[in-house]
């Protein structure tokens, strides 16, 4: 994969030849797709000179907060949520196996006034600090 990683530049258009198409195993996918492609030793990648501005850069599957329970314990694909950060708790620590792991709980609210508590684990617990919501 390293060979191909060096050839593919995000934001550019590429032509990819000689790859395999397979059914998606549907575990921990960034997007919801039934199929995936696999590079082989014969796969070739060419960067095109066309302008990529007409192709959308991002594709989101935004779920309303009141429907998050439907995705509980499902790891087939990732989802996105949009909400206002309305609360941040102090960072705490939990034991995961033999290691202490930081966690931080935050509360978000969507446009329908639905509120949920989200737990940030590991390094993500340090991405938000409690002083953000103090005012």
TrEMBL record:
<dbReference type="InterPro" id="IPR003871">
    <property type="entry name" value="RFA1B/D_OB_1st"/>
</dbReference>
<feature type="domain" description="Replication protein A 70 kDa DNA-binding subunit B/D first OB fold">
    <location>
        <begin position="1"/>
        <end position="46"/>
    </location>
</feature>
<dbReference type="InterPro" id="IPR012340">
    <property type="entry name" value="NA-bd_OB-fold"/>
</dbReference>
<dbReference type="GO" id="GO:0003677">
    <property type="term" value="F:DNA binding"/>
</dbReference>
<protein>
    <recommendedName>
        <fullName>Replication protein A 70 kDa DNA-binding subunit B/D first OB fold domain-containing protein</fullName>
    </recommendedName>
</protein>
<dbReference type="Pfam" id="PF02721">
    <property type="entry name" value="DUF223"/>
</dbReference>
